[in-house]
Amino acid sequence: MSLELYGHPFSSYTWKALIPLYADGTQFEFRQVPENEENYAELKRIWPFGRFPLLLDDGEPVIESTPIIEHLQAHHPGPNVWIPDGDLGREIRFLDRFFDLYVMDNMQAIVGDVLRPEESRDSYGVAKSRERLNTAYNWIEQRIGDRWAAGDNFTLADCAAAPAPFYADWVEEIGDSRPNLKAYRARLLADPIVARVVDEARPYRPYFPLGAPDRD
Ligand SMILES: N[C@@H](CCC(=O)N[C@@H](CS)C(=O)NCC(=O)O)C(=O)O
Question: What's the gap in Å between 132 CA and the centre of ligand 1?
Fold first, then answer.
């Protein structure tokens, strides 16, 4: 068996795939993109959008972070259960969608706007994304418990949440009015596996388009 993960240490969705690989102690080769041109050309040959992470399992591609985690659980299981069966599993999948679509997407839209040519920037879209991020913060604030996203075990939902409020807070602060979300973000950062991906990404912070804050 050979596993190869295409990704970048500073990429939020790459973290999401790295966390279960590290937590389960699964062996894999990391293929960094886009700096490594050979890796990047291969990624784009397989997936023309050039987005990452992408997993190759004995040459067979698994695309998008959530299916990658599902694939790891099904074919390379370790000590952790990322998506349990039944209603809890459904709740975890929903929270995974929540962190990706309502937190990460809005964060990416705000960051992406500063990368556009000045004349193509979208201040209305950015304001809307900030509004949606605040709605997402307020919603999760009301329901996050004092452990992980869906109870006592670290699951797929926490893999999605590890980068989502981390980077979102850099573009739109969670602030003191959401103590439960703030505490959850801090718990994630204190987790040794999450701390590992945060540390591996540290050298790339100067490249954060909006400027990385001097914390975390
Ligand atoms: N829905 C995808 C999102 C992947 C994604 O947005 N990846 C970003 C890095 S965090 C990327 O590939 N950016 C480079 C690009 O869009 O060219 C997933 O869950 O894997």
Answer: 20
Q: Please say whether the beta carbons of 38 and 90 come within 8 A.
A: no
pLDDT of 1 strictly over 90: no
Q: What's the CA gap between 13 and 66, in Å, rounded?
A: 9
CB 113 within 8 A of CB 121: yes
- List, as one string, the DSSP characters of 106-118: HHHHHHHHHTS-G
DSSP-based three-state secondary structure for 128: helix
Ligand 1 center–CA 46 separation, angstroms: 15
Averaged pLDDT for residues 110-119: 96
- The span from the CA of 31 to the CA of 39, in Å, is 6
* Residue 15, ligand 1, Cβ within 6 A: no
- Does the beta carbon of 112 lie inside 6 Å of ligand 1? no
| Gap from CA of 177 to ligand 1 centroid (Å) | 30
